[in-house]
From TrEMBL:
<dbReference type="Pfam" id="PF02021">
    <property type="entry name" value="UPF0102"/>
</dbReference>
<protein>
    <recommendedName>
        <fullName>UPF0102 protein GRI58_06300</fullName>
    </recommendedName>
</protein>
<dbReference type="InterPro" id="IPR011335">
    <property type="entry name" value="Restrct_endonuc-II-like"/>
</dbReference>
<dbReference type="InterPro" id="IPR011856">
    <property type="entry name" value="tRNA_endonuc-like_dom_sf"/>
</dbReference>
<dbReference type="GO" id="GO:0003676">
    <property type="term" value="F:nucleic acid binding"/>
</dbReference>
<dbReference type="InterPro" id="IPR003509">
    <property type="entry name" value="UPF0102_YraN-like"/>
</dbReference>
<comment type="similarity">
    <text>Belongs to the UPF0102 family.</text>
</comment>
Length: 116
């Protein structure tokens, strides 16, 4: 798949994930946050909890199981270290989540996917 098409599908997946999170009571704080150490797809808040979310879009449900790996989560965690202080409230919790998307399936939200 060429880079432009992958980028377009990634944006579509992030938009769908943001809409789904909003319907579940989350407030989207930021999208596609770039840091010197990587990118965070979505940052969302519900109450005092802030989730830094990696969104993965795949062509089939079967491919979703391979979409989430330690290498990618390490990169997200490094990016989160750069900006967590900007989003976390006093006494609030932060975590790294993953949302997996494929055509014809409901989003799969993996809460607290990264635990170093």
């Amino acid at each position: 798949m060429n880079r432009q098409l992958a980028e377009k599908r990634g944006c579509e997946g992030e938009t769908r994930a943001a809409l789904w999170l909003t319907a579940k009571g989350w407030r989207i704080l930021a999208k596609r946050v770039k840091t010197p150490r990587g990118e965070i797809d979505l940052i969302a808040r519900r109450g005092t909890l802030v989730a830094f979310i990696e969104v993965k879009w795949r062509r089939s449900r079967e491919q979703l199981d391979q979409a989430n790996d330690e290498y990618r989560l390490c990169r997200v965690a490094a990016a989160v270290e750069c900006v967590a202080h900007e989003y976390a409230q006093n006494g609030g919790d932060i975590r790294i989540d993953v949302i997996l998307l494929a055509p014809g399936t409901l989003p799969r939200h993996i809460a607290n996917a990264w635990q170093p």
